[in-house]
Amino acid sequence: MLQGMRDRDPVQWDRFVLLFGPLVYEWCRRRRIPEHDAADIVQEVFRAVASRISSFRKERAEDTFQGWLRRITHHKVADYFRQLAKHPAAPGGSTANVQMSNIAFDVPETWDEDEAGLDQQALYRRAMELLESSFERRTWQAFWKIAVEEQPARTVAEELEMTPGAVHNARYKVLRKLREEFDELL
After folding, report:
1. Do residues 65 and 185 make contact, with C-beta atoms less than 8 angstroms apart?
2. pTM above 0.85?
3. Cα angle vertex 162, ends 161, 166, to 5°?
4. Which of 105, 116, 107 is nearest to 31 (CA)?
5. Fold of domain 2-111
6. Are residues 74 and 44 in contact, defined by beta-carbon separation less than 8 angstroms?
7. For 111, how many CA atoms within 13 A lie in the half-sphere containing its CB?
8. pLDDT, tens only, 61-72
C-alpha cells in the first residue's frame, strides 16, 4: 500500500483513507474538536501526507508510519487551535472575545498508551475488513475462527469440513497477505 501511495495509485489512496481516516478523525475528536472541524482537519492531514509521503522513511526501529501520521495530525490540530485563538467565535461581545483570546489552547504532545492499543486494534480490524473480499469465504472463516476467536484448529476443521492443516494454511495465507499489504503502515 505504501509504495502504491508513493506512486499516486488512486486505489491505494482510497484504501489508505478507509484504513486511517477513522483513526485520524478519532484523534481529532479526542482533542475535543467539533465533528465538522475534525472532518476538515482529517482532510488537511491527508493533504499533508500526500505531499510528504515520499519523505517517510523508517530509519530506526521506533519509526512507524502511525507515529509519523500522529505527528502530522498533532501539528494540524495545533494549527486549528492557533487559528481558533486568533478568531474565536465567542458570544457576549468584545469582553467575551478578549477573554477567549487569553485562553491558552494546550494540545498535549503525548498520547495515552491505552488509547494507542485500542487504535492499533481498530486499525487491524479495518485492515482485515479491507482484505476479507480477497479470500474465499471458507478460507476467511477458518482464519477468523483460529486467529481472532482463538478456537482450536481441530474444532474449526470439523465445523468447516476442512483438515486441521488446511485451517492452519488459511491462517497463514491471510496473515501473509495482511503483512504484505500493510506491514509498513501497521
Report:
1. yes
2. no
3. 165
4. 107
5. Rna Polymerase Sigma Factor; Chain: A (1.10.1740)
6. no
7. 18
8. 777 888 899 999
